[in-house]
Write a structure and sequence with these properties.
This protein is an alpha+beta fold. 59% of the residues lie in helices and 7% in strands. The protein binds iron/sulfur cluster (SF4).
Protein backbone atom coordinates (compact mmCIF):
# COMPACT_ATOMS: atom_id res chain seq x y z
CA UNK A 1 0.00 0.00 0.00
CA UNK A 2 2.77 2.42 0.89
CA UNK A 3 4.28 2.29 -2.61
CA UNK A 4 1.07 3.72 -4.10
CA UNK A 5 1.41 6.80 -1.91
CA UNK A 6 5.12 7.17 -2.45
CA UNK A 7 4.81 6.96 -6.22
CA UNK A 8 1.40 8.40 -7.03
CA UNK A 9 0.74 10.80 -4.15
CA UNK A 10 4.21 12.00 -3.11
CA UNK A 11 2.77 14.96 -1.15
CA UNK A 12 0.86 12.60 1.18
CA UNK A 13 1.69 11.95 4.83
CA UNK A 14 2.51 8.34 3.96
CA UNK A 15 5.11 9.52 1.45
CA UNK A 16 6.48 12.08 3.94
CA UNK A 17 6.95 9.31 6.53
CA UNK A 18 8.73 7.17 3.95
CA UNK A 19 11.12 10.04 3.20
CA UNK A 20 11.73 10.70 6.88
CA UNK A 21 12.75 7.09 7.34
CA UNK A 22 15.28 7.45 4.53
CA UNK A 23 16.84 10.27 6.60
CA UNK A 24 18.37 12.08 3.63
CA UNK A 25 20.28 15.35 3.97
CA UNK A 26 19.21 17.68 1.14
CA UNK A 27 22.77 19.04 0.88
CA UNK A 28 23.93 15.67 -0.36
CA UNK A 29 21.21 15.17 -2.97
CA UNK A 30 23.23 16.36 -6.03
CA UNK A 31 26.05 14.01 -5.01
CA UNK A 32 24.17 10.88 -4.00
CA UNK A 33 21.16 11.18 -6.31
CA UNK A 34 22.46 13.09 -9.35
CA UNK A 35 19.92 11.58 -11.74
CA UNK A 36 16.94 12.33 -9.52
CA UNK A 37 18.28 15.80 -8.91
CA UNK A 38 18.46 16.44 -12.67
CA UNK A 39 15.04 14.90 -13.16
CA UNK A 40 13.52 17.27 -10.57
CA UNK A 41 15.25 20.20 -12.25
CA UNK A 42 14.01 19.15 -15.72
CA UNK A 43 10.48 18.65 -14.43
CA UNK A 44 10.43 22.16 -13.05
CA UNK A 45 11.71 23.61 -16.31
CA UNK A 46 9.04 21.65 -18.13
CA UNK A 47 6.42 22.82 -15.64
CA UNK A 48 7.38 26.42 -16.36
CA UNK A 49 6.98 25.83 -20.07
CA UNK A 50 3.96 23.53 -20.23
CA UNK A 51 2.50 23.69 -16.71
CA UNK A 52 2.42 19.90 -16.70
CA UNK A 53 4.09 16.96 -14.99
CA UNK A 54 5.19 13.93 -17.00
CA UNK A 55 2.35 11.48 -17.46
CA UNK A 56 4.46 8.39 -16.91
CA UNK A 57 4.98 7.48 -13.26
CA UNK A 58 7.38 4.89 -11.88
CA UNK A 59 5.19 2.83 -9.55
CA UNK A 60 7.81 0.23 -8.69
CA UNK A 61 8.61 -0.58 -5.07
CA UNK A 62 11.63 1.70 -5.17
CA UNK A 63 9.82 4.51 -6.97
CA UNK A 64 11.82 7.77 -6.89
CA UNK A 65 8.67 9.94 -7.23
CA UNK A 66 8.61 11.04 -3.57
CA UNK A 67 12.24 12.07 -3.66
CA UNK A 68 11.81 13.95 -6.95
CA UNK A 69 8.78 15.73 -5.49
CA UNK A 70 10.80 16.68 -2.39
CA UNK A 71 13.66 18.10 -4.50
CA UNK A 72 11.19 20.07 -6.63
CA UNK A 73 9.66 21.52 -3.47
CA UNK A 74 13.07 22.68 -2.28
CA UNK A 75 13.67 24.38 -5.65
CA UNK A 76 10.22 25.99 -5.55
CA UNK A 77 10.86 27.34 -2.06
CA UNK A 78 14.30 28.67 -2.97
CA UNK A 79 12.92 30.46 -6.03
CA UNK A 80 10.03 31.76 -3.94
CA UNK A 81 7.71 32.98 -6.72
CA UNK A 82 3.99 32.73 -6.07
CA UNK A 83 3.11 31.78 -9.63
CA UNK A 84 5.61 28.90 -9.69
CA UNK A 85 4.31 27.67 -6.32
CA UNK A 86 0.78 27.77 -7.72
CA UNK A 87 1.70 25.96 -10.94
CA UNK A 88 3.49 23.29 -8.91
CA UNK A 89 0.53 22.75 -6.55
CA UNK A 90 -1.95 22.82 -9.42
CA UNK A 91 0.03 20.27 -11.45
CA UNK A 92 0.07 17.79 -8.54
CA UNK A 93 -3.61 18.47 -7.89
CA UNK A 94 -4.47 17.66 -11.53
CA UNK A 95 -2.34 14.55 -11.51
CA UNK A 96 -3.98 13.39 -8.28
CA UNK A 97 -7.43 13.91 -9.78
CA UNK A 98 -6.54 11.87 -12.86
CA UNK A 99 -5.00 9.05 -10.85
CA UNK A 100 -7.80 8.79 -8.30
CA UNK A 101 -10.36 7.89 -10.97
CA UNK A 102 -8.80 4.44 -11.21
CA UNK A 103 -7.98 3.93 -7.53
CA UNK A 104 -9.88 1.79 -5.03
CA UNK A 105 -12.20 3.28 -2.36
CA UNK A 106 -9.62 2.19 0.22
CA UNK A 107 -6.97 4.42 -1.40
CA UNK A 108 -9.34 7.40 -1.51
CA UNK A 109 -10.20 6.94 2.16
CA UNK A 110 -6.57 6.49 3.23
CA UNK A 111 -5.39 9.56 1.32
CA UNK A 112 -8.19 11.81 2.57
CA UNK A 113 -8.20 10.61 6.16
CA UNK A 114 -4.45 10.25 6.72
CA UNK A 115 -3.20 13.30 4.86
CA UNK A 116 -6.10 15.75 5.29
CA UNK A 117 -7.64 14.34 8.50
CA UNK A 118 -10.98 14.11 6.73
CA UNK A 119 -13.87 12.02 8.04
CA UNK A 120 -15.14 10.02 5.13
CA UNK A 121 -17.14 6.82 4.48
CA UNK A 122 -18.30 5.03 1.41
CA UNK A 123 -21.27 2.93 0.35
CA UNK A 124 -23.79 4.17 2.86
CA UNK A 125 -27.55 3.58 3.03
CA UNK A 126 -29.85 6.40 4.07
CA UNK A 127 -33.65 6.10 3.94
CA UNK A 128 -33.38 3.14 1.59
CA UNK A 129 -31.06 4.93 -0.86
CA UNK A 130 -27.43 4.05 -1.45
CA UNK A 131 -24.92 6.89 -1.72
CA UNK A 132 -21.34 6.39 -2.83
CA UNK A 133 -19.75 8.59 -0.22
CA UNK A 134 -20.29 10.78 2.79
CA UNK A 135 -17.95 13.48 4.04
CA UNK A 136 -18.21 15.70 7.14
CA UNK A 137 -19.67 19.07 6.17
CA UNK A 138 -16.77 21.04 7.74
CA UNK A 139 -14.29 19.08 5.58
CA UNK A 140 -16.48 19.83 2.56
CA UNK A 141 -16.39 23.52 3.45
CA UNK A 142 -12.57 23.56 3.57
CA UNK A 143 -12.52 23.40 -0.22
CA UNK A 144 -15.96 23.72 -1.81
CA UNK A 145 -16.09 27.56 -1.59
CA UNK A 146 -13.01 27.67 -3.86
CA UNK A 147 -14.95 25.82 -6.55
CA UNK A 148 -17.62 28.55 -6.60
CA UNK A 149 -20.04 27.04 -9.09
CA UNK A 150 -23.62 26.77 -7.83
CA UNK A 151 -23.61 22.98 -7.53
CA UNK A 152 -20.80 23.23 -4.95
CA UNK A 153 -22.76 25.42 -2.56
CA UNK A 154 -23.63 23.72 0.73
CA UNK A 155 -27.35 24.52 0.29
CA UNK A 156 -27.32 22.53 -2.95
CA UNK A 157 -25.88 19.36 -1.35
CA UNK A 158 -27.63 16.31 0.05
CA UNK A 159 -27.05 16.69 3.77
CA UNK A 160 -27.65 14.18 6.53
CA UNK A 161 -26.86 14.90 10.19
CA UNK A 162 -23.72 16.91 9.43
CA UNK A 163 -22.56 14.73 6.53
CA UNK A 164 -22.49 15.72 2.86
CA UNK A 165 -23.53 12.86 0.57
CA UNK A 166 -21.49 12.68 -2.58
CA UNK A 167 -20.95 10.74 -5.76
CA UNK A 168 -17.42 9.50 -6.40
CA UNK A 169 -16.56 12.11 -9.08
CA UNK A 170 -17.41 14.96 -6.75
CA UNK A 171 -15.39 13.50 -3.92
CA UNK A 172 -12.38 13.13 -6.22
CA UNK A 173 -12.73 16.76 -7.30
CA UNK A 174 -12.76 17.81 -3.63
CA UNK A 175 -9.68 15.73 -2.84
CA UNK A 176 -7.86 17.25 -5.81
CA UNK A 177 -8.71 20.77 -4.67
CA UNK A 178 -7.61 19.92 -1.14
CA UNK A 179 -4.34 18.56 -2.53
CA UNK A 180 -3.60 21.94 -4.06
CA UNK A 181 -4.36 23.82 -0.83
CA UNK A 182 -2.39 21.29 1.20
CA UNK A 183 0.72 21.75 -0.97
CA UNK A 184 0.34 25.55 -0.97
CA UNK A 185 -0.01 25.64 2.81
CA UNK A 186 3.08 23.58 3.41
CA UNK A 187 5.72 26.15 2.63
CA UNK A 188 9.13 25.22 3.99
CA UNK A 189 10.21 28.09 6.31
CA UNK A 190 13.34 29.75 4.85
CA UNK A 191 15.31 29.19 8.04
CA UNK A 192 14.68 25.46 7.78
CA UNK A 193 16.50 25.30 4.45
CA UNK A 194 20.18 24.80 5.23
CA UNK A 195 22.98 26.54 3.34
CA UNK A 196 23.24 24.56 0.17
CA UNK A 197 26.48 23.45 -1.47
CA UNK A 198 27.76 24.99 -4.70
CA UNK A 199 26.54 22.02 -6.70
CA UNK A 200 23.05 23.56 -6.42
CA UNK A 201 24.11 26.90 -7.92
CA UNK A 202 24.05 26.19 -11.69
CA UNK A 203 20.61 24.56 -11.39
CA UNK A 204 19.20 27.39 -9.34
CA UNK A 205 20.69 29.98 -11.70
CA UNK A 206 19.14 28.26 -14.71
CA UNK A 207 15.72 28.10 -13.03
CA UNK A 208 15.98 31.71 -11.90
CA UNK A 209 16.87 32.88 -15.39
CA UNK A 210 13.87 31.00 -16.80
CA UNK A 211 11.65 32.64 -14.17
CA UNK A 212 13.05 36.08 -15.04
CA UNK A 213 12.29 35.61 -18.73
CA UNK A 214 8.72 34.47 -17.93
CA UNK A 215 8.20 37.52 -15.71
CA UNK A 216 9.60 39.84 -18.35
CA UNK A 217 7.25 38.32 -20.86
CA UNK A 218 4.24 38.83 -18.56
CA UNK A 219 5.19 42.42 -17.93
CA UNK A 220 5.67 43.31 -21.59
CA UNK A 221 2.32 41.75 -22.46
CA UNK A 222 0.34 43.16 -19.58
CA UNK A 223 -2.58 45.38 -20.44
CA UNK A 224 -2.13 47.08 -17.09
CA UNK A 225 0.49 49.31 -18.67
CA UNK A 226 -2.37 51.74 -19.17
CA UNK A 227 -2.38 53.31 -15.70
CA UNK A 228 -5.78 54.96 -16.06
CA UNK A 229 -7.49 51.67 -16.88
CA UNK A 230 -5.68 49.83 -14.14
CA UNK A 231 -6.69 52.33 -11.46
CA UNK A 232 -10.27 52.37 -12.64
CA UNK A 233 -10.92 48.66 -12.19
CA UNK A 234 -13.44 47.86 -9.46
CA UNK A 235 -12.09 45.91 -6.48
CA UNK A 236 -13.68 42.63 -7.61
CA UNK A 237 -11.70 42.78 -10.88
CA UNK A 238 -8.49 43.98 -9.19
CA UNK A 239 -8.73 41.00 -6.85
CA UNK A 240 -9.02 38.49 -9.70
CA UNK A 241 -6.22 40.13 -11.66
CA UNK A 242 -3.93 39.86 -8.64
CA UNK A 243 -4.70 36.14 -8.55
CA UNK A 244 -3.71 35.79 -12.20
CA UNK A 245 -0.44 37.63 -11.50
CA UNK A 246 0.35 35.03 -8.85
CA UNK A 247 -0.56 32.20 -11.22
CA UNK A 248 -3.47 31.13 -9.00
CA UNK A 249 -6.01 28.97 -10.74
CA UNK A 250 -9.25 30.89 -11.30
CA UNK A 251 -12.60 29.21 -10.72
CA UNK A 252 -14.94 29.05 -13.70
CA UNK A 253 -17.16 32.01 -12.63
CA UNK A 254 -14.02 34.14 -12.07
CA UNK A 255 -12.80 33.37 -15.59
CA UNK A 256 -16.16 34.21 -17.12
CA UNK A 257 -16.53 37.42 -15.16
CA UNK A 258 -13.00 38.59 -15.99
CA UNK A 259 -13.49 37.83 -19.69
CA UNK A 260 -16.92 39.48 -19.95
CA UNK A 261 -15.77 42.54 -18.03
CA UNK A 262 -12.59 43.06 -20.04
CA UNK A 263 -14.38 42.55 -23.36
CA UNK A 264 -16.99 45.11 -22.36
CA UNK A 265 -14.41 47.78 -21.62
CA UNK A 266 -12.83 47.22 -25.03
CA UNK A 267 -9.87 45.00 -24.18
CA UNK A 268 -8.63 43.09 -27.21
CA UNK A 269 -8.87 39.30 -27.42
CA UNK A 270 -5.06 39.06 -27.59
CA UNK A 271 -4.65 41.07 -24.39
CA UNK A 272 -7.19 38.89 -22.59
CA UNK A 273 -5.36 35.75 -23.74
CA UNK A 274 -2.13 37.19 -22.35
CA UNK A 275 -3.74 37.60 -18.95
CA UNK A 276 -4.86 33.97 -18.96
CA UNK A 277 -1.37 32.75 -19.88
CA UNK A 278 -0.41 32.56 -16.19
CA UNK A 279 -3.19 30.04 -15.54
CA UNK A 280 -1.82 26.62 -14.59
CA UNK A 281 -4.08 24.89 -17.12
CA UNK A 282 -3.68 27.46 -19.91
CA UNK A 283 -4.38 26.09 -23.36
CA UNK A 284 -4.15 28.69 -26.13
CA UNK A 285 -6.60 26.99 -28.47
CA UNK A 286 -9.34 26.38 -25.90
CA UNK A 287 -8.97 29.80 -24.24
CA UNK A 288 -9.04 31.59 -27.60
CA UNK A 289 -12.21 29.73 -28.55
CA UNK A 290 -13.87 30.65 -25.23
CA UNK A 291 -12.86 34.31 -25.35
CA UNK A 292 -13.94 34.63 -29.00
CA UNK A 293 -17.23 32.94 -28.11
CA UNK A 294 -17.79 35.45 -25.27
CA UNK A 295 -16.94 38.28 -27.69
CA UNK A 296 -19.68 37.08 -30.06
CA UNK A 297 -17.22 36.04 -32.77
CA UNK A 298 -18.29 32.40 -32.61
CA UNK A 299 -21.47 30.42 -31.94
CA UNK A 300 -24.71 32.42 -31.95
CA UNK A 301 -22.84 35.73 -32.15
CA UNK A 302 -24.14 36.89 -28.74
CA UNK A 303 -21.80 39.28 -26.95
CA UNK A 304 -22.09 38.83 -23.22
CA UNK A 305 -22.29 41.72 -20.78
CA UNK A 306 -20.48 41.71 -17.44
CA UNK A 307 -22.01 39.93 -14.44
CA UNK A 308 -23.94 42.34 -12.21
CA UNK A 309 -23.11 43.02 -8.55
CA UNK A 310 -25.92 40.82 -7.10
CA UNK A 311 -24.68 37.82 -9.08
CA UNK A 312 -21.07 38.51 -8.03
CA UNK A 313 -22.16 38.74 -4.40
CA UNK A 314 -23.89 35.36 -4.68
CA UNK A 315 -20.69 33.82 -6.12
CA UNK A 316 -18.61 35.35 -3.31
CA UNK A 317 -16.71 37.45 -5.87
CA UNK A 318 -17.73 40.88 -4.58
CA UNK A 319 -14.80 42.55 -2.78
CA UNK A 320 -16.55 45.71 -1.64
CA UNK A 321 -14.50 45.83 1.57
CA UNK A 322 -11.43 46.61 -0.57
CA UNK A 323 -12.97 49.66 -2.23
CA UNK A 324 -11.12 52.87 -1.42
CA UNK A 325 -13.81 54.98 -3.14
CA UNK A 326 -16.52 53.73 -0.79
CA UNK A 327 -18.83 53.35 -3.81
CA UNK A 328 -19.20 49.62 -3.30
CA UNK A 329 -19.96 50.01 0.41
CA UNK A 330 -22.59 52.71 -0.10
CA UNK A 331 -23.86 50.98 -3.25
CA UNK A 332 -23.87 54.28 -5.17
CA UNK A 333 -21.80 55.82 -7.95
CA UNK A 334 -22.56 59.54 -8.35
CA UNK A 335 -26.00 59.11 -6.75
CA UNK A 336 -26.90 56.22 -9.04
CA UNK A 337 -27.40 52.76 -7.56
CA UNK A 338 -24.35 50.58 -8.27
CA UNK A 339 -25.65 47.52 -10.10
CA UNK A 340 -22.74 46.47 -12.25
CA UNK A 341 -18.91 46.70 -12.03
CA UNK A 342 -18.94 48.39 -15.47
CA UNK A 343 -20.71 51.34 -13.83
CA UNK A 344 -17.94 51.56 -11.26
CA UNK A 345 -15.35 51.49 -14.05
CA UNK A 346 -16.96 54.29 -16.10
CA UNK A 347 -17.39 56.46 -12.98
CA UNK A 348 -13.76 56.04 -12.04
CA UNK A 349 -12.51 56.62 -15.60
CA UNK A 350 -14.49 59.86 -15.59
CA UNK A 351 -12.90 60.97 -12.29
CA UNK A 352 -9.39 60.00 -13.32
CA UNK A 353 -9.69 61.77 -16.68
CA UNK A 354 -10.84 64.94 -14.90
CA UNK A 355 -7.82 64.73 -12.61
CA UNK A 356 -5.50 64.30 -15.58
CA UNK A 357 -7.05 67.24 -17.43
CA UNK A 358 -6.58 69.46 -14.39
CA UNK A 359 -2.94 68.38 -14.10
CA UNK A 360 -2.17 69.28 -17.71
CA UNK A 361 -3.77 72.77 -17.42
S1 LIG B 1 -20.11 46.14 -5.28
FE1 LIG B 1 -20.09 45.49 -7.41
S2 LIG B 1 -18.37 46.61 -8.31
FE2 LIG B 1 -18.10 46.70 -6.10
S3 LIG B 1 -16.78 44.97 -5.59
FE3 LIG B 1 -18.89 44.30 -5.35
S4 LIG B 1 -19.37 43.38 -7.30
FE4 LIG B 1 -17.57 44.62 -7.65
Amino acid sequence: MQSIFVSKFPFSKNAAEYLQNLDIDIRTLPTYFPNLFKEAFNRLLNLMENKKLPEKIDISLNSPEALIYAIMRVFVELINEDFLRNWFAEAYSKRTENLLHSESPKTLITLASTTFDWKIYNEIQIAGRTYNWKLRFDNFLEVAPNLMAKDWKLVNQHLNKGWVLLVREKLIRLIAEKTKLYILNRKIPRDEIPNLPESYTPYLNALQSKINSIKKNFRSQRIFSDEINKNAYPPCIQFILKKTEKGENLAHPERLFLTFFLLNIGTSIEDILNIFKTQPDYNEEITRYQVEFAAGKRGSGTKYTSFGCPKLISYGLCKKELDEMNWCITGKVFKKVLKNPLQYYSGKIFLLSLKQENKSK
